[in-house]
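batch job 7 of whatever, protein = 3-isopropylmalate dehydratase large subunit
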Amino acid sequence: MSMTMAEKILAKASGKKEAEAGEIVMANIDVAMTHDLTGPLSVESFEKIGVDKVWDPEKIVVVFDHQVPADSIEAANNHIQMRKFVKEQKINNFYDVREGVCHQVLPEKGHIVPGEVVVGTDSHTCTHGALGAFSTGIGSTDMAMVFATGKLWFKVPETIKFDITGKLSDYVYAKDVVLNIIGKIGADGATYKACEFGGETTQEMSVSDRMVLCNMAIEMGGKTGLVEPDQKTFDYLKGRSSKSYEVMKTDSDAASLKTMEIDVNDLEPQVACPHHVDNVKPVSEVEGTQIDQVFLGSCTNGRLDDLRTAAKILKGHSISNNIRMLVIPASREIYTQAMDEGLLRTFVDSGALVCNPCCGPCLGGHVGLVGPGEVSLSTSNRNFKGRQGSPDAEVYLSSAAVAASSAIYGKITDPRAM
C-alpha cells in the first residue's frame, strides 16, 4: 500500500505495517515536550492519575521559555513547580531559563530526528517536522496521559503537499512563502491535515527556513508540518544527535495525498494584517502603515539567518525615534553566534533593545507588550486580537527583512526599496 510520510510514521509508531488516513491508531511517543506555561497543568493532571513515575524520563524534555526570567509571582511559582517535578521524576533533559525557545532548543540539542513521533504542549510543535518527524501540539491533559503511558491516540491525517517551485527574489524569504500559502487557502484550509512542503524551492531552503514553513502549518489548521529529509537534514543532525533514525518519504500515488502547486517566481514580500494570519497582503498594499514597535524574534523568525538579514539592513542606520525595536534571539546558541558575528552590536548601535532568548511579546505574557491603540510589526506567527498585549492594539506579521526596514522609517516599508 502506498502511503504518505505521516501515514508511514504513525504506522511504525503504532506497530502496524500500514496506516490509512482517517484510521485511529495508538502511537508510541518518541519525544514529549512541555514548557513553563503549559507544564504545570500537565503535572497536576498527571498527579491526579495516581501514577508514581513517568513512563520514560529520558524521552521527556522540559524547557523554560515563555516567561523567563519569571515576570510575576505566578510565573515564579510555575517555575518552582516544574523544577520540583523534574527533580522528582529524574528528568535529565531540562533546560532552565537560559537556553531559549523550546522549538529551537529541541532540534539544536539533538532531541529531534526523522521518523519520530514528537508531541508538545504548544501548538507550534509542528516546527520539528522540518527534520522529517511527525510533530504536533497536544493539550496539557493529553500530555499527562503521555507522561503516564508513553502513548497517545491519533487520527491519521490526510496530506496536502505544497509543491513550491521558482526562484525567490531578493528580500523574499520562507516567511513570505508560507504567509502567501496561508492567505490563499485560509486559516482552516488544511484543517487536521499533514502539511508537507516540497518542490525545488523547498529543497534549496536551509533547515532554518524549512522550520519557518513547518512552524506555521498550524496557522492554516494543519495537524503537522513536514519536509522530506535530505542531505541538508543529515548535515544539520551531525554533531547534534546520536540517535538512530529512519527516513520516511511520501509515495506519489498515496491515496490520501493532494498536491497544491505554488509558484514563487513573482512573489513579493508578504504581510499578514490584523487580526488574522490569513489576512495576507503584498507589502506594496500596506506600505506606509505607521507602527509603534518592531519585534524580531520568536520560534518563527528568531534564528541566525533572520538576525543576519535584519542586521545587514540596519547596519549604518538608526531606528526611528518614533518606535522601539526588540530583538530576541531564539536560543542561547543563536545569541552567542550573533554576538560572535557582531550582529548584536549592530542592533544595539541602531537603537534596538536586545533581550535574553525567550518567547518575549509573542504570547502577550512577557516583555514588550503593546498598549491600546498601538501597532506592532512582528516576525512571529500570530496576530490575533490581544495576542501581544492590549486587545485594542494591532499586530502585523512579516519577515525579518520587512521588520528591519520598517524599523528604520517607523512605518511598514518594502525592503526592496532600501
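notes: The radius of gyration is 20 Å.
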